[in-house]
Automatic annotation (TrEMBL), chains A, C:
Pfam family, one: Acyl-CoA_dh_N
Domain Acyl-CoA dehydrogenase/oxidase N-terminal positions: 7-118
Record flagged with keyword Flavoprotein: yes
Protein name: Acyl-CoA/acyl-ACP dehydrogenase
Location of the Acyl-CoA oxidase/dehydrogenase middle domain: 123-216
Record-stated family: Belongs to the acyl-CoA dehydrogenase family.
Cofactor(s) needed by this chain: FAD
Keywords: FAD, Flavoprotein, Oxidoreductase
SUPFAM superfamilies: Acyl-CoA dehydrogenase C-terminal domain-like, Acyl-CoA dehydrogenase NM domain-like
Presence of the UniProt keyword Flavoprotein in the record: yes
Acyl-CoA dehydrogenase/oxidase C-terminal domain: residues covered: 228-377
Stored CDD domains: ACAD
Lineage: Bacteria, Deltaproteobacteria, Candidatus Desulfacyla
Species name: Candidatus Desulfacyla euxinica
From TrEMBL, chains B, D:
GO molecular-function term, one example from the UniProt record: oxidoreductase activity, acting on the CH-CH group of donors
Keywords, in A-Z order: FAD, Flavoprotein, Oxidoreductase
UniProt source species: Candidatus Desulfacyla euxinica
Record family assignment: Belongs to the acyl-CoA dehydrogenase family.
Protein name: Acyl-CoA dehydrogenase family protein
Length: 382, 405, 382, 405
């Protein structure tokens, strides 16, 4: 038993932290918050050079064959600065899904492209009437000859507007149960019939899009994995993406805690640093508790994805998703309260964290969804 | 015990409601609250609306006629306020300080001359006022005010900085708590002044808040001359005036917020009908039904408690620090309700206004962010809990504050 | 608008408080907690002499025709001392149901008996599989000739072991929807086939019983109200009982707040009364907030039962039931935390309040039940 | 990162689990934890069980053999503890102080003679110890201890009173923090003594707690003689010994509680299958499913955090005040879970053991009440939050406590 970062991970974390400080300072975040594209090529290229797009990929495709935990320390660092850009969508949504579902040709093309930083992808899953239910897929993939025709709307697709390819979940069969009938298609984002529009979201540091598909014609060989097995593949990649999001939440929460604690030491009212008052002190203590306990759960969830069984992998990713996102939100709100007026200004950075925290709460399934997942599995168990 | 208004009062409510419906029909499109492009535009709209209220005889029903009021029972003012709070809070909000804090202070503590000069222009919508209390080093520790006012001849000369001043950028005048005597214990050296915002040396800088709006401002004063006849009360009474005259209006304000929030709950049910989860309207989901009901319950608590406070004051009861409950209730309930509405919306909660996918025109997204200020503005929750603990329950001050007092 | 107790009510409250202090001190409560019967005849007789059993009854039956609010101030006083005894079951469950559903003969017999203090009654409603769902009635009332035969088990029947009569809700018709098919029967508690046993409950200051009915034979004239209309009647009396329970909760919560506040002024640690520390001070402030805001809602709910329409009466009683019970529980727990070790002892009185608070949470429908009621009504409205 | 034990350790776990299953089969009826009629009976059962553990070689695997241990890696002790925590917490609970606090203190700070004399009798179940720290005026303010120990010849003479001492009524010995020097600052005048509970002048009075049990006691000391060789460390080191040697065991204790609570969650699901609402098992109700899942999540947090702490310590890391998180986590999670299980049961939650209507033999009713002590015992939540705020985050002490230090 050894539950802490190993030396390599500590080093990765240090490098990531330094990278973020140098390349993605808060001024950059503020700029990208307003910028419709949401990241600069320069910043993306540097992340690629750091090897971040290749970490989880197999060596055969130019990857580094590392563990999810290794990548998580990077997402922690990015979370600590609400770093913008399509890393999450590319390496956790797109690459992981191709990894689990793609054939050799697809892997060769897409994974190699991602590892080299030449391709960016994303996953188009959620639909307007599904809410936070990840398994709600109604988009139709109508078979005609050796082609499928996709029709429908996908929402909350991260970074679709700058992605080179999209993985789209649609129903190629009968019925609408969650488990069966969903197939995945991997398409060029420039295909005819696809129109992508940026959603004006609260957390504009991570861009989300609406993607409409009108009679988009897809070849048989652009199906990703076996027909009707899409949900199985997705479950595996979504779990990993959820854990990545948790790492981001822990990093963000920790930053909020530090901001609040520093402020509490310096801000004087009633001739005392406000941190001497228990109302403030205990609020800061609670933040510390929420950050560190979330981190403990994150470690388990990240480790379990690579080394645990599929039941534990699902339970842990769902648990971490609920807990880390909620703690991030709580800590961000608490920090604003500690900073009071100052924390409520646009000028101060805290609001970017609050907005990211709110986004993380509902991205990749909200707490209600994941708790129901846990109840379902625990119920079966006994 | 009686939760009803009298028949006469109910008749007045009907009359006013009809007038309001028609007027709103004239000034805004549709039934939903208007939003404004800029704070200045918002301020102008509020002034214009106040003018209409005044001309129709609905401004300050309970004020003496000589100051522009109608000399009617306070209940009628309450009816006007609560109806507006439910139907068009956006036309009252920029005037909350003016009508809720400034005019009652002038009415209660001002000289006859001050009342005649300022009140009518407030009631008819000519003038908007703001309030300069907080300073960078006087936030929760409000008696730490350091803006200096030095008497020179027939003027005070003001130097200093105020912060968190709502709607200062549209204000014609301000009420200011300033230090006129630095040699006596902190709260005893404060005085209460009226200040012309157009006076030379006054500079206003808006603060952008996390919603992107600019509700609050900094005010910088550099050798600003304030005539001595703009002093309210005596020198050194500033603190007493600031805290003691406002209880009634604060209680009324709290109750009004309940009405606005109750309207919000109606809206929350509408959102729950519209938004779907797993293909079904959220309102059919037993888990979210619990949240809907809980939000309604807490908001009714707000309303009942607010009315109970007002009713006590209407009977001439002395308003006490118990009023801090009202502040805590509306701020924390408001935050919880906003969180709950965001939950209902699932991932749609991320979409702000300006998209075909926006729920309810993005109102809740804005409101969610705005709500994070509730527990900070007008005295943080921590300060309210100190007030209840110390002034209502009689618990001792903590050592550092006890030493100072 | 006048939202405060009137002079009469203030006087009633004063008398009730004095009565409780003299006749029901905590030593009596402790004794009755252990005592299977749960009250003394002497104490009951004195309550009768105070007129408490007659307050809500019509003058025609020896009653005083007073408002529910008048009685609520008495329940507040009783709550402040977790006063034991069958007043609640007799005047709020039994009498109110007879009042709304009974015919002249029944009213003459039962209401007069109650007003005079000669009869005690209760309501047997809940069933084992229903949980906190008040509308779940499955007990069978089989019609045979001019008689009904009742079979089944009722649970959580307050004071059934000392009641002279029981009102039993059973299904005399087809179907099992909540609204229809339920009939009420009023029976002598000594009838053959009825066996009553005391439940060992956490809050032993209010006795709850299991009542089994085996082929209990009831005459047609012992039906209370019209056949199949039972739920309509019950709704009206249950609402009033719920409000009574709220008054009790507010009284109990206030007492806990006072105990904690006094302790916080006296107990010194770190050379300070602990009430000087914000962690304790703010906890006490929160108690005050919860007590007074619950009282405000209680006033509305109590007043509305006599003067509002049925929609408001239901909404307000459900809202108050949720809020007052939860606040009572919160305040009792918070008070224990303030008193720390001392609050955790049997010797100190606080635990009786915690136990009553827990009982009040689930009695007459729990929060989940009442929130669903509210959602149902609010949903219809629009 | 690795959440697994080694294969060898897992093999040991299997071996121990088999032994435990069989032994439990011998000592109790059925699979559920035994309950006991009296504290004394409970204590005897725990002693007997400890004897069995000792004889089978499972007591203090990580202690040197010369003191009765097995000289094995700490992981094996961890495995013993966590298996017992899940399968039979009732046999460990009365010995938590003895094994978790007393024996590590003696091992770390005791003289060779003390170790040889006391440790073997602890490990083989002969002696139960209790701990006298708190006093009526030294609760949260624990350095305020006023029990006096005056040296006279080869004895200390003790006078004073301890309170909240768990299991004192069954204890053979006690560890005591006493004041040996009243003339130096508060914590510097304290010493750490071992005391024979059968010595003349020692009187134990049980305190009945809100469950009706008598877990805690008062200890009165009237001229109790304690030989000088029962002093641990030096005079004046009492406070340091009390707080610094216990971190590892506290971290381990916290992790063990996670296992007991996880077992509780299994049980909670079983309750949800059994108990019905509106005629259907509660486990089918989407609203309660959320509560079930949330309880499980929070308990897993406890477990993961506990393991993370232990793992750090196993590697020789220095235990820090971060451990206060463990205390807050288990106490607050434990309270919430108990509340949630009560909710599931609806009105059945009122029924204590001893009725055909009791759910799960009334275990949760007892446990709910007991849980109200969690945030009080072993340092209140308020104290834990002070520790984190001040010692981990470096926030300043409040004025009153800062002055004193």
């Amino acid at each position: 038993m050894k539950i802490k970062l190993n030396d390599d991970q500590v080093e990765i974390a240090r490098q990531a932290q330094r990278f973020i400080e140098n390349e993605c300072p808060m001024e950059y975040v503020r700029e990208m918050f307003e910028d419709p594209r949401g990241f600069t090529d320069d910043s993306w290229q540097k992340m690629v050079e750091m090897g971040w797009t290749a970490m989880l990929l197999p060596e055969a495709y130019g990857g580094l064959d590392m563990d999810l935990m290794d990548l998580c320390v990077i997402f922690e660092a990015m979370g600590s600065s609400v770093t913008p850009g399509p890393l999450f969508s590319t390496v956790l949504l797109a690459a992981e899904t191709v990894k689990v579902a793609g054939d050799e040709t697809q892997k060769g093309r897409y994974l190699t492209g991602i590892a080299e930083g030449k391709l960016r992808g994303t996953l188009a899953l959620s639909e307007p009437d599904g809410g936070a239910d990840l398994g709600y897929v109604r988009m139709e993939a109508r078979a005609e000859g050796d082609r499928f025709f996709l029709n429908g709307t996908k929402l909350f697709v991260p970074d679709a507007h700058t992605a080179d390819f999209l993985i789209v979940a649609a129903r190629s069969g009968e019925g609408d149960d969650t488990g069966g009938g969903i197939s995945l298609f991997i398409l060029d984002s420039g295909l005819e019939g696809i129109s992508t529009s940026l959603l004006p979201t609260m957390d504009s540091t991570r861009k989300l899009c609406a993607v409409e598909l009108k009679d988009v014609s897809v070849r048989q060989e652009d199906m990703l994995g076996k027909q009707g097995q899409g949900w199985d593949y997705l479950q595996r990649s979504l779990r990993r993406a959820q854990v990545g999001l948790c790492a981001e939440s822990v990093g963000g929460a920790e930053r909020c805690m530090k901001i609040a604690t520093e402020y509490a030491k310096e801000r004087v009212q009633f001739d005392q640093p406000i941190g001497a008052f228990q109302a403030v002190k205990h609020r800061c203590s609670q933040m510390f508790l929420e950050v560190e306990s979330a981190r403990s759960l994150l470690y388990w969830a990240a480790w379990t994805q690579d080394h645990g069984d599929s039941k534990d992998a699902t339970l842990s990713s769902s648990a971490a998703k609920v807990y880390c996102a909620e703690n991030f939100k709580n800590v961000a709100c608490a920090a604003i309260q500690v900073l009071a007026g100052t924390g409520f200004t646009w000028e101060h950075d805290l609001h970017f964290f609050l907005k990211r925290a709110k986004a993380n709460e509902v991205m990749m399934g909200d707490a209600v969804y994941h708790r129901e997942e846990i109840a379902r599995i625990m119920e079966e168990e006994e | 015990m009686d939760f009803r208004f009298t028949e006469e009062q109910e008749a007045f409510r009907q009359e006013f409601t009809s007038w309001l419906e028609q007027t709103l029909h004239e000034v805004r499109e549709g039934d939903t609250p208007r939003s404004f492009e800029s704070m200045v535009e918002w301020g102008e709209a509020a002034r214009d609306f106040q003018k209409r209220l005044f001309e129709a005889g609905y401004a300050a029903r309970h004020y003496p006629e000589e100051y522009g009021g109608q000399g009617r029972p306070t209940e009628e003012e309450l009816i006007v306020s609560e109806t507006m709070a439910a139907m068009c809070p956006e036309y009252r909000h920029p005037l909350v300080v003016t009508l809720g804090l400034v005019s009652p202070t002038i009415l209660t503590c001002g000289t006859e001359e001050q009342k005649k000069k300022y009140l009518p222009k407030i009631l008819d919508g000519t003038h908007v006022w703001c309030q300069g209390f907080s300073e960078p080093n006087a936030g929760s520790d409000i008696v730490n005010v350091s803006t200096r006012a030095v008497k020179k001849g027939d003027h005070f000369v003001l130097n200093g900085q105020k912060v968190w001043t709502s709607f200062a950028q549209m204000a014609d005048y301000a009420v200011m708590v300033v230090r006129t005597n630095p040699d006596v214990p902190k709260h005893k050296g404060l005085s209460y002044l009226l200040m012309d915002m157009k006076a030379p040396g006054v500079e206003v800088r808006p603060i952008i808040q996390i919603t992107g709006d600019q509700e609050f401002n900094e005010i910088f004063m550099d050798d600003v001359k304030v005539p001595i006849d703009m002093l309210v009360g005596e020198e050194g009474q500033g603190w007493m005036i600031a805290i003691t005259t406002l209880m009634f209006e604060r209680a009324m304000g709290d109750a009004m917020i309940a009405n606005t929030q109750l309207k919000g709950i109606e809206n929350m049910f509408a959102v729950a009908r519209e938004v779907k989860r797993s293909g079904r309207p959220v309102i059919e989901d037993p888990r979210f039904r619990q949240e809907l009901a809980q939000a309604w319950i807490e908001t009714m608590v707000l309303k009942c408690h607010g009315y109970r406070n007002i009713s006590q004051l209407l009977e001439g009861g002395v308003p006490g620090p118990e009023g801090s409950i009202g502040k805590l209730l509306w701020s924390e309930t408001g935050q919880r309700t906003n969180e709950a509405v965001m939950h209902l919306q699932g991932p749609l909660s991320q979409v702000m206004k300006g998209s075909p996918w926006s729920v309810d025109e993005g109102r809740w997204q804005h409101s969610f962010l705005r709500s994070k200020g509730y527990t900070i503005e007008a005295g943080t929750s921590e300060i309210q809990r100190n007030i209840i603990g110390e002034r209502v329950l009689g618990l001792p001050k903590d050592a550092s504050r006890a030493q100072r007092a």
